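Z., the sequence and structure:
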Amino acid sequence: MMHQTNGMPAVELSDATLGDLPDGVSTPSYDRTKLSPGIVHIGLGNFHRAHQAWYLHRLMQQGLAFDWAIIGAGVRPSDAAMRARLVQQDCLTTLVELDPDSASVEVIGSMIDFVEVHPENAPLIAVMSNPCIRIVSLTVTEGGYYQSEAGGLEVDHPDIAHDITNPDRPVTAFGAMIAAYRARRNAGYPPFTGQSCDNLQNNGDVLRRTVVELARLTDPDLAQWIDQTARFPNAMVDCIVPATGDAELSSIRRLGIDDHAPVTHENYRQWVIEDQFCAGRPPWERAEVTIIDNVHAHESMKIRILNAGHQVLANAGEILGIKTITDCMADPLTRAFFHNVQTQEILPYVEAVEGTTPQDYLTLVEKRFSNPKIRDTTRRVAFDGSSRHPGFVLPILRDALASGGPVEGLALVEALWARMCAGIREDGTIIDSNDPHWDQLNKAALRAKSRPSAWLDMHQTYGNLSDHTRFSDAFSRWLNLIWSDGTYAALKTYST
């Protein structure tokens, strides 16, 4: 089917139309009919398709890994919409790389199917139970692992409580994985590797803990089998992938492609994985993935400089009405704030890795954040602060307090988050709900306007940090200044 946009025909993406795409669009050189599944990916969104799926596509372009094709999956009703969009175009995806000076367009074909989304996950369990599936990977967000404040399984969460009571009809990805492990063990099949692709420190260990602890509550013998025979490699993943909106859809059509789920991404990728797989793996190193024995230092550098750095910028940007991370970096005060917090209060707690120093990585991140082609919204980056601040920022703060280092900038970062969660920008416009716990955050933020300590009373987030007067005093001072004189006044005071 052809669509007309500004006089240019747009080809509706499918296997049948790959040969009709505009000149300059890279397409699969391999025969997709010869692909067979080896990976199920749960939580299939933009990041996965620009990252893991692209790396696999790159192997397939070399004539490798044809038995490792991806089957997409989701466990939320909203995943059904993504499934519908992708299935109608044969699970192909257009990737647009946004270099500051150019753009390249390619269609990747490493995904071959998408499991029907069902509330009790029977189709997903059936697919994962097949021994041809040797890896189950996930992008379910940093907060999607049901971890309690103490680091264990959040057994009181309604989803987890449901899966404990109904292990054969689970609603979570982890309950579905356990049901598939049970089916494989009972059939005499080996387990699959569980592979987290989320931005979590020790993400593989977190995935193992969630799966094994949940299994132990219903089937201790199965839990032991999973713990002893399955593998859950830690990994560091890195690529900035904005959300797809009307502008991106229109841009793709102007290029001559009618793709219902295109992806834009920066001109940078990195993937570092521990070589811990129980049922084989694609030859990732042939696609320039770094295979390593211990990924911790790489994880820490990326999470502390890039992911925590995103939180340094995003809340200030939301309060000020600055639309994107690139725009934040173009604003002199927010850029100076970012740079000063990084160099004075984050880099001292980041180890070097082979080939780069923390300062070199910061320079790279500043360049990436400043890419004018990447329209990564402050709203997207600020989403789910209740997971991202405890995961990315607060561990650095604890290290700084333990070592006696400065914490003024990190305290200001937390004060900006508290101010953002009040739900109104400085120009009077409303900040819509942007966190799974928004109501609780909003109430605490409004109480903190007159009593800043009310924000730090959220012990599920801050633990005992309010007992550290160097932090709590600085936090209160900054929050009072933001409310009285504005965000720019606070940023200027910190940076001078």
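The CA atoms of residues 469 and 475 lie 9 Å apart. The chain is about 45% helix and 15% strand.

Let me know what you think.
H.
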